[in-house]
């Protein structure tokens, strides 16, 4: 990275302990690569895309002090007994992808969609799969790609 990237971490707090571990991995990766970050919390995974859009709107209106170069979405959806799981997983992923494409965002999606708590922890733990760190790395890699393609001017 030629400059310090400023990242917004959007955290779904429904499974707070899992999300905290995902955030720990994301923050470590951002700091390791010389970036800065801000964290915001939303109730659940379905609210994450809305929060990203709010941040984009705030940036376009210049009402935030330091604009974001990229976004990291964190949270967890554990399958239950109803089809609500499918709706939450599919709609949140689709909305994040739509925002990414429409606004050329550097966005790392670290929302875990799993069958049970054991799978969630295996993916979240920094000393295991570290999916929070992976989401932050994806975001930072996409920021770097945008820079190589000349898309970072003026933020």
Task: Give the secondary structure arrangement, pairings included.
Blueprint: E1 6-12, H1 16-32, E2 36-42, H2 48-60, E3 70-78, H3 84-103, E4 107-114, H4 117-124, H5 131-148
Parallel strand pairs: 1-2, 1-3, 3-4
Helix pairs in contact: 1-4, 1-5, 2-3
Explain what this protein looks like in three dimensions.
The protein has 155 residues and is an alpha/beta fold. It has one domain: Rossmann fold (3-Layer(aba) Sandwich). Helices cover 49% and strands 20% of the residues. The chain has 5 helices and 4 strands; from the N terminus they run βαβαβαβαα. Strands 2-1-3-4 form a 4-stranded parallel β-sheet, sandwiched between helices. The radius of gyration is 15 Å and the shape is globular. The two termini are 15 Å apart. 5-amino-6-(D-ribitylamino)uracil binds at residues 14, 45-47, 76-78, 109. The active site is at residue 84.
Keywords:
Rossmann fold; alpha/beta; four-stranded parallel beta sheet; about 160 residues; globular
Spans with pLDDT under 50 lasting ≥5 residues? none
- Distance separating the two termini: 15 Å
Tally of alpha and pi helices: 5
CATH architecture: 3-Layer(aba) Sandwich
Radius of gyration: 15 Å
* The level-1 CATH class: Alpha Beta
Q: What share of residues is helical?
A: 40-55%
- The CATH topology, please? Rossmann fold
Main beta sheet: strand number and arrangement?
A: 4 strands, parallel
Tally of DSSP β-strands:
4
Structural class: alpha/beta
Order of secondary-structure elements:
EHEHEHEHH
Number of domains: 1
Q: Shape from CA axes? A: globular
Q: State the fourth-level CATH superfamily.
A: Lumazine/riboflavin synthase
């Amino acid at each position: 990275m030629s400059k310090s990237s400023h990242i917004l971490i959007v955290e779904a707090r429904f499974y707070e302990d899992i999300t905290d571990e995902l955030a720990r991995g994301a923050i470590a990766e951002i700091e390791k690569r010389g970036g800065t970050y801000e964290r915001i919390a939303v109730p659940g995974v379905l609210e994450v895309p809305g929060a990203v859009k709010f941040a984009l709107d705030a940036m376009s209106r210049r009402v935030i002090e330091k604009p974001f170069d990229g976004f990291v979405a964190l949270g967890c959806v554990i399958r239950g007994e109803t089809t609500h799981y499918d709706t939450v997983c599919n709609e949140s992923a689709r909305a994040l992808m739509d925002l990414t494409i429409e606004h050329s965002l550097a966005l790392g999606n670290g929302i875990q969609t799993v069958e049970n708590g054991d799978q969630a922890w295996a993916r979240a733990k920094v000393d295991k799969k570290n999916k929070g760190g992976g989401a932050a790395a994806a975001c930072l890699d996409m920021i770097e790609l945008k820079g190589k393609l000349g898309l970072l001017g003026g933020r």
